[in-house]
Amino acid sequence: MTIDYSIVLNLHNEAPYLKRTMRSLAQAASFARHKGLTSELVLVLDSPDEATREWVAKADYPEFDSHKTLHVKNRSLGLSRNDGIAAASGQYITTADADDLVSYNFFVQMHAALLEHGPNTIICPEHVCSFGDRTYWGQYTSSEDVTNIMLFGANSYVSRIGCHRSVFDRLQFIDARGGMKAFEDWHFNCEAVAAGFRFDIARDTVLFYRQRRNSIMTTSHGRIIPFSRLFMPTVFAQRCAEDYRIIDGRKWFDGFNSELMRQRLLDSQVMLEAIAAANYIEPKIDIELVKHLNVGSSKGGPLSPGCAYYEAVRQLDDSQFTDVVLFPFVSRGGGEKYILDVVKALLKLDPNKRILILTGEKYETHALHLLPEQCTFIDLYEICSRWQLSDIHIITLRIIQAVAGSSMLHIKSCPYAFAFYERFSAELTNPAVFYYFSNAVYQDRGVSLADGSGLYFISEFAPSLTHIISDQPASIQYAKQRLELDGLTCATLYAKCVSQLQPDSLAPFKPVRRLLWASRLDYEKRPELIPLIAARLFEYDPQIVLDVYGHSVFVENSSPFGTIPNVTYKGGFTRFADLNPAGYDALVYTSRFDGLPNIVLESMAEGLLVIAPDVGGIGEVVYRDRTGLLIDNDSEDLVMADRYMDAISKLYENVLDVDQLRKGALSLILERHSEQAYMASVKEIFHLADQ
Hints:
Elements: E1 5-11, H1 15-34, E2 39-46, H2 50-58, E3 66-72, H3 77-87, E4 92-97, E5 101-102, H4 106-117, E6 121-132, E7 136-139, H5 143-146, E8 162-164, H6 184-194, E9 198-211, H7 216-219, H8 233-247, H9 258-267, H10 269-281, H11 287-292, E10 295-297, H12 304-313, E11 323-327, H13 334-349, E12 355-359, E13 375-379, H14 380-386, H15 392-403, E14 408-412, H16 415-424, E15 432-435, E16 441-444, E17 447-450, H17 453-461, E18 467-470, H18 473-480, E19 489-492, E20 514-518, H19 529-540, E21 545-549, E22 567-571, E23 586-588, H20 598-605, E24 609-613, E25 629-631, H21 637-652, H22 658-672, H23 675-686
Parallel strand pairs: 1-2, 1-4, 2-3, 6-9, 7-10, 11-12, 11-14, 12-13, 14-15, 15-18, 18-19, 20-21, 20-23, 21-22, 23-24, 24-25
Antiparallel strand pairs: 4-8, 5-9, 6-7, 16-17
Domain Glycosyltransferase 2-like: 6-147
Organism: Advenella kashmirensis W13003
Protein name: Glycosyltransferase 2-like domain-containing protein
């Protein structure tokens, strides 16, 4: 006998519902037989409980022209669907779950739709009525109406599908267990679109979807589908370019009238008959339910996630990156410069590397001129903030999975990277480097408190990390005193700082009565000390001028020191060398907390004396009375201003051998921070060799 369609029914522990489920399937099969269609029931018992096993063994299936029972131990809905499909004999195949019901016309209308649209189309029911623990009514539509791009952020179709058996020669259901993964049906639908299939509906059919307290839909909060080939950049661009054009910046489709749809359902004779037939089997389904439940449409899913992803990947191909850098933004200094120097060193050691830089926080003008040409830059904050900023982390994950599946991740301490890892570290298999420079310090009523976000990140995600790298040993030691870090490579990589000078060639110190402050005008750098230091300077010698360079990364500022007579605000700067460091007597560096700041190293490399506080790793380079003037730190601003003034006065009162300090500082830079020393350290830390 030729079988027109096979029903692949998956079972596990649904014995309390099987009598109603089987009566519903039998009702639809009987109606299909009346219309001349032959059917096969394939029961797939995947590690069933005893009650389910016994029910299936005792049951009769006279409404079906054939039936077979499979016993498997997959403990996976997707894999068990595949087993049932492989055993099916029908020309067309439809999936089924053991606790749901279908409208009496389900198989007839699905068969008609499959004949109408051909083997390249997958058919879904037009309506889904959810009942039980959660209720709603959803109307579904075709691929052309709902768009492929929506599949990135939501399942536009349902788990109950029908198609020609040849579809499964190209597609299989995935095992969606493990990590955060779920939704094998959503994944299958994505794979179908990637393979070029389209979706349509069997008109006037209803899937009555039972919502149980422990069902997949009610226990899958926070889970995501496994990675799909649809998310590969070239595939996504090909399948979604026209959708993106049609959407034209909208975040939702317009025009669905839920009350009008509800009234159409209530006025429909076919719907009344379908609900009445289902109600005869399962009284929980009734027309009163339709009068009060939420009515929605598959076109009501979010467009923002897919559109943002499309913008992020449309310029990419499917080539794999070797390294991915997670930055808040690309600034010219700080931790960003440090990590970019690492990237440049890695490229020098292996020119075939391809680097992807993803940024996830607001920033007006990224310093893109600092990026090597082998770097691809994507500003995810700029893209996602125009669509839906909360999607930035799933988009980050999908990009990494698509084009950097085995790459090394380089993680800058920042809220973007922390939130991404908090959400999706379970889905990552990449080796990862965390750059740990310092802990932020805040004051409360004279008490200093450390921000533990960096240490917390290491504590929580150490199993996912391969390296912790710092620009000075103090931070590594701080972490080791508090955490067990066995198995991790914990390394100090001193920042590179190249100098063209030699200690013996430095010009003798001749005071010009100009001091330099150059850094970011942000909380971390303690700029509120500048007016206090300036006031003391003015009392000491009104002729001494303090030039201030820099701007805030986080807030706008114009001329914050305009009323202070001996302070000249010079604005921002791009390169330290452009500030003419030879025209100053010393760098006055202020900071609340720090790693080993670039500006201090650059000053020493230019032969400029450094006056700086003993915070973070600064004491690793400013050795007291050997390479500069190191000031004991204090939380009180007035105390610190006095200490800075004491150090500055020594500079002008000939009680210091300034030239010896400058030479000592330059010698340290040449020995420990040279290109040669830096490259040797990078090779050792990352176990690389010259190409």
